[in-house]
What we know:
Blueprint: E1 13-23, H1 40-52, E2 58-60, E3 69-83, H2 85-94, E4 100-107, E5 118-129, E6 142-144, H3 150-157, E7 162-165, E8 180-191, E9 194-201, H4 208-220, H5 228-235, E10 250-257, H6 289-299
Parallel strand pairs: 3-10, 5-6
Antiparallel strand pairs: 1-3, 1-4, 2-3, 5-9, 5-10, 7-8, 8-9
Amino acid sequence: MSLFTLLDEHHPRAGRFAMGIEYDGSRYYGWQRLKEGPSVQQALEEALARVARQPIEVFASGRTDTGVHATRQIIHFDTPVARAQKAWVMGGNANLPADVRIQWAVPVSDDFHARATATARRYRYLIFNSSMPPALGHATMTWHRSPLDEQRMHAAAQALVGEHDFSAFRAARCQSSTPWRHVHFVDVTRHGPLIVVDVQANAFLHHMIRNIVGVLLAIGDGRRTVEWCAQVLASRDRTQAGITAPPQGLHFVDARFAGKDVLPETPLGPTPLLFLGEWTGEREVPIGEYLRTTARMQRHGLGETPAASCDEK
């Protein structure tokens, strides 16, 4: 599917659909439906229910926190009501606020699950590094006024690659049953005043990326040594780490899946980075113990995978 592929309007069908969702999380209390305020999940379910003319429940590949954004959040839902692809996309968007958009919708097999069959999630954290804060884009990036050395930040972050106990980067109220995660890569790059922390893993703990960025900021501006990141990881103690970086710089940009279903590829966001020309799915998912376990569970029909039990934010 290219950016200009026509949406099918002649073949309505029921069953399971997957969707790619983009949203500005500035005014939402995160992805998950909550009583105390608006959520992206609530906005989507209400919009799709109008298209289906009956309640729709959606499941997402990751639960973003308050103020966090997404350019490729993958969701799925089941419907007994037959609708064409165009009806779900155009009808859904017509009923959504302007800060949430459906990018595409495709039918998928019954064993596709946006959360349980995801093998990788990818986030990008944007830092505007300048003596003055930006007026444009201030709600989608974090401002850091002191000069940052992105090479020091990148070198420090390599200690996080691999399968580790990330207790030191875990929020106190994280609900995950295990602190172990497999980080596939962490890249820190600079594009003028914009520094990008690009992270992919099988899953993430609550506030894990924002706590990693907090450590890297202290290393980048010289307050801490390059070795400090590895020392924090080894401590398994959250009190040994630094601040939790603000939410507005964090963007969910990609998710990868096991199974036979092929999802549309899209340019890898967020918008300030589209000039890089990278598309989703271009980075490999290395084999780790969680993937070996996933394969065994799927062969024996044992249900949700280890990646499905995480609480990514």
